[in-house]
Amino acid sequence: MNFKIKILYFLFSLKYEKWLYRNKVASLQLKRWQKLKETLKKSSFYKNILKIDGDLTSYPVINKTIFMANFDTINTYGIKLQEAINIATEAEISRNFNPTLNGITIGLSTGTSDNRGVFLADEDDRTKWVACILDRVIGLSLSKRKVAFFLRANSNLYESTKSKLLSFNFFDIFIDPANHIDKLNLLQPHILVAQPTILMFLAKNVLSGNLKIKPKKIISIAEVLSSEDQTFLTNAFNQQIHQVYQCTEGFLASTCDYGTMHFNEDFLVIEKKYIDEEQTRFHPIITDLLRTAQPVIRYELNDIITEKKDCKCGSKYLGIQSIEGRSDDILVLNDCKNIAVQIFPDFIRRAIVLSDELITDYAVIQVGQNVLQLYIESTNMGSFQLAQSSITSLLLNFNIENIIFEKVELNPYVIGSKKRRVRNEWK
Ligand SMILES: [Zn+2]
User: Fold this and answer.
1) CA 145 to chain centre
2) What pLDDT is recorded for position 48?
3) In angstroms, what is the span from residue 301 Cα to ligand 1's centroid?
4) 314 CA distance to ligand 1 middle (Å)
5) pLDDT in the model for residue 268
6) Which residues on neighbouring strands pair with residue 347, listed in sequence order?
7) How far is the centre of ligand 1, averaged over its atoms, from the C-alpha of 264 (Å)?
8) What is the mean pLDDT of each run of 10 residues along the chain (427 residues)?
9) Which residue, 418, 411, 351, is CA-closest to 195?
10) 342 C-alpha to center of ligand 1: Å?
11) How far away, in angstroms, is 141 Cα from ligand 1 center?
12) What residue spans of 160-281 are helical by DSSP H?
């Protein structure tokens, strides 16, 4: 079947089944799980533990380390990890964005060299992914639309969405975004897709009059979009900012008409592993019921999620109140009894943004035991002191008193990297 026809076919079956099972999500998941079990027979890792009647919970929970260690046996094509890394790295260096191996697309995720994720997608996976993105993110339309897509590497996964009605224009995030302004003015994109750091830069240029674009839809990807950035962007672009929660492990969630992100539970099973006593924050354990080249079964992500209940849209799919970053961004500080206390990134974020509304950017990096580097960007000279006092009083609530602050003069953010305003570099 022609690739585009396959996309349309899958798109309509996705929509139809979502509608048909609108009140029975669990039945749809079960049906897709039974089908997926057939595919798992081709994975030597899962074949050995496969139980004919086994439900999902009888499978082991894995994480990135286990996943990468067993990459060769988990994937259903017998592709070796080293082989995949070599091909993807070579492609990224030469900026040839179509690395494939026997027709299987190979992608690399961001991260340090020992922490990079590799993803595989065969033609079926690509078809489904494109259909899902068209359905949940870009939307179907019979008018011609231009998409400006900011990416770290173009992938044929994205290019495959191209058609007469939809043109994709790739913007390299490793280039200083200032160089993209003229190109954007010329292009006049209908849809703008970028990470929050870039959207913030573009929004400031819209306000200053340098950038004159009027996209109909703006989609934030790749990084955590904080609520204050979201408000800024909404005002600057004068429209709702859509979000997509997508990572190496799959397309996980996107915003509804009310601005809430919902997990794609029609094809994802989400188990919650709570990480605090109050059971408000959890790591999602995901099972992707559609992916076949690289099965994702009970895979624990280290993102910290808080749940949103009763979204006005009425969706039964799990809503996301916030994604607070990753668990390795949690600060670990000693209190006055020398007991290590975990401080969630969101606590620090709130302490800073509420301390002075003139603060436009900031970073907090733990670099030693009870040593925090603090960067504050503001037009007010006193903002640094206000932010520092605010963090100090927050930490006092946890009996943490002896914090050493180091003032950082330059924004520690590196172009092209994922922005994490609060992070822990002290392990
Ligand atoms: Zn909703």
Assistant:
1) 24
2) 79
3) 22
4) 6
5) 97
6) none
7) 12
8) 83 94 94 93 88 82 92 94 87 72 80 68 88 86 87 60 75 82 95 91 95 95 84 95 86 92 96 92 96 95 91 94 83 92 87 89 93 94 95 93 92 76 87
9) 418
10) 31
11) 22
12) 181-187, 196-208, 227-237
Picking from 147, 146, 201, 145, the residue whose alpha carbon sits closest to that of residue 173 is 201
From residue 123, give the alpha-carbon distance in Å to each of 98, 100, 163, 262. Answer: 13, 11, 17, 26
Which pLDDT score is estimated for 394? 93
Q: What is the pLDDT of residue 97?
A: 64
CB neighbours of residue 273 within 10 Å: 12
Q: How far is the CA of 315 from the centre of ligand 1 (A)?
A: 6
Candidates 326, 328, 309; CA nearest to 318 is: 309
* Owner of token pair 């595989």: 120
* Amino acid present at 368: G
- Token output for 339: 């007991």
At 154 the pLDDT is 54
Q: How far is the CA of 238 from the centre of ligand 1 (A)?
A: 20
Q: Which amino acid is at 258?
A: Y
Q: Which H or E run contains 422?
A: strand 422-424
- pLDDT computed for residue 114 by the predictor: 55
What whole-number distance in Å separates Cα of residue 259 and Cα of residue 344?
Answer: 24
Instruction: State residue 155's pLDDT score.
Output: 57
Element (H, E) at 39: helix 25-40
Of the candidates 181, 169, 222, the one whose C-alpha atom is nearest the C-alpha of residue 416 is 222
Residue 111's pLDDT is what? Answer: 54
DSSP element (H, E) containing 390: helix 383-396
SS3 content of the chain, % helix, strand, coil (to 5): 35, 25, 40
Other C-beta atoms lying within 10 Å of the C-beta of residue 407:
10
Would you say 199 and 233 are in contact if contact means Cβ atoms under 8 Å apart? yes
Give yes or no for a contact between 302 and 312, defined as CB atoms under 8 angstroms apart.
no
